[in-house]
Amino acid sequence: xxxxxxxxxxxxxxxxxxxxxxxxxxxxxxxxxxxxxxxxxxxxxxxxxxxxxxxxxxxxxxxxxxxxxxxxxxxxxxxxxxxxxxxxxxxxxxxxxxxxxxxxxxxxxxxxxxxxxxxxxxxxxxxxxxxxxxxxxxxxxxxxxxxxxxxxxxxxxxxxxxxx
Length: 164
Prior knowledge:
The protein is built from 4 helices and 3 strands; from the N terminus they run αααββαβ. It is of the alpha+beta class. The chain has one domain (2-159). Strands 1-2-3 form a 3-stranded antiparallel beta sheet, covered by helices on one side. Helix 2 (15-59) runs antiparallel to helix 3. 20% of the residues are buried.
């Protein structure tokens, strides 16, 4: 009986299979988790770039409250094209209608947002805020653990300079 127990304890056959069954699920979770989060950050970057482009465009037009300028900015944010009605999307599900533009007048006075002296430009200045949001669709690994879709919202502000 001792001889048989000693043989079982010192036997190394099958140890690689046992180690593999422990390591492979952890390794796959790590790899697929990195892919899922990389995809999320990539889409977040695309939306952030689009929102920034739209805010920069509106900061340089003479009238950021103009409906045509805002339609161009919304298209620029969602599609990357200044032509409204483009079918291409930076991110699937990110439509120009999901881009919200807010123009807030700010008094251009000494001691204001530019410090001791007034800012160069007109009085009042415009603060253009562009917000874009979309429902992120995960690759599948995120949902495997029971997490739902995540709503991504990105905001960017610029001070209007009206040079168009």
